[in-house]
Specification:
Shape: rod-shaped
Distance between the termini: 25 Å
Order of helices and strands: HHH
Radius of gyration: 22 Å
Number of helices: 3
Low-confidence stretches: none
Number of domains: 1
Structural class: mainly alpha
Strand content: under 5%
Number of strands: 0
């Protein structure tokens, strides 16, 4: 049960990071300029959207998931040391 909760938490953090990164990227002045927020859509360039959006989405998904995984690994390592000092009936 605990492992499923940790995995679910990592997925939730990854999803929130991806959505948050896309929203922040979408609202920047540089992106708005490429989407044609100038006079009569001068400077409209959807190529920038097609090249940048996948990288923004992936970075927003991977970075929070990596930090979550690192935190879980560090906590598991620390917990593993305290549990290894106790004798287990299965490992005796």
């Amino acid at each position: 049960m605990r492992r499923d909760a940790l995995t679910g938490g990592g997925c939730a953090v990854s999803f929130a990071g991806a959505v948050g990164a896309v929203i922040v990227w979408w609202q920047t002045s540089r992106t708005q300029r490429h989407l044609g927020n100038e006079f009569e859509n001068n400077g409209q360039d959807f190529g920038a959207v097609l090249t940048e959006l996948p990288f923004v989405f992936l970075a927003g998904a991977v970075v929070p998931a990596a930090v979550w995984g690192l935190g879980v690994w560090m906590l598991g390592r620390r917990r593993g040391r305290s549990e290894s000092s106790r004798a287990s009936e299965f490992h005796a």
